[in-house]
């Protein structure tokens, strides 16, 4: 039998001045959600069921940017997206523009299992959720006081820039924010890290049968245009799973889309014969151009790997041999 392994993340790009109590809160959420996956794997659960269950837990907790606690559009509303992929046969499901479905990852799973399609968005996704009997709530359920404040800061920082590589000095407001709140001057998605909401949650799993699966869920960018779609629901960019591995990405969505980051990890393993960590390191270093991102991955042999090129990534992992950790920084 193969050896199971699990990795989770709660977003890449962490304010280096994040207060200690917020760091500890993040670690507690990660540890709790990781334990959900570990318990399921010890009980013999399949990888696909585990990634859905873990991401549901992450969506339900308002700390991270998915489900309740999602980032807000410039109109102050929530538009969520998610995807899930089964390495067996590379089946997949994805949704975008979801505004009332309590757990978008479960809707993505139903798109895969119960529809003839791989991707549904906006009204079509909402209608399908109701047809399938998924729990729906008012959009206000997803909005938190913290994110209302984040949106205000984002607007003051001159919104989301269209060129995500524009120097911070290009905006006087941004420069003021960075000078007072972000000593390293790093920008993600056009915003100083210090006012950049933790972005995206994800899970990658290999079960005791050696089958891999991955799932990713997010509220997207703070102050994004309505209708914007990022990497998280795009198979091959934010999420990918095959016979070799499973990958979930986080960070600058547009950079991840351009690089098809998740699929590239599998491709480097498949075509170059690289190991999991080698493939992750190569893709983070060589495929993101000037973008900032991170990813988690597992292999069919029970390896776990992660990589990021920004100031941190909320993450955790566990393996069948008893290893378990959660972390934020290098």
Automatic annotation (TrEMBL):
GO biological process terms, semicolon-separated: proteolysis
Organism: Zizania palustris
Enzyme superclass (EC): hydrolase
Listed EC numbers: 3.4.19.5
Keyword flag Metal-binding: no
Keyword flag Hydrolase: yes
Protein name: beta-aspartyl-peptidase
Active-site residues, as the UniProt record annotates them: 200
Superkingdom of origin: Eukaryota
Site (described: Cleavage): 199-200
InterPro entries: Peptidase_T2 (IPR000246)
Gene Ontology molecular-function annotations: asparaginase activity; beta-aspartyl-peptidase activity
Subunit structure: Heterotetramer of two alpha and two beta chains arranged as a dimer of alpha/beta heterodimers.
Catalyzed reaction equations: Cleavage of a beta-linked Asp residue from the N-terminus of a polypeptide
Binding site for substrate: 228-231, 250-253
Keyword tags: Autocatalytic cleavage, Hydrolase, Protease
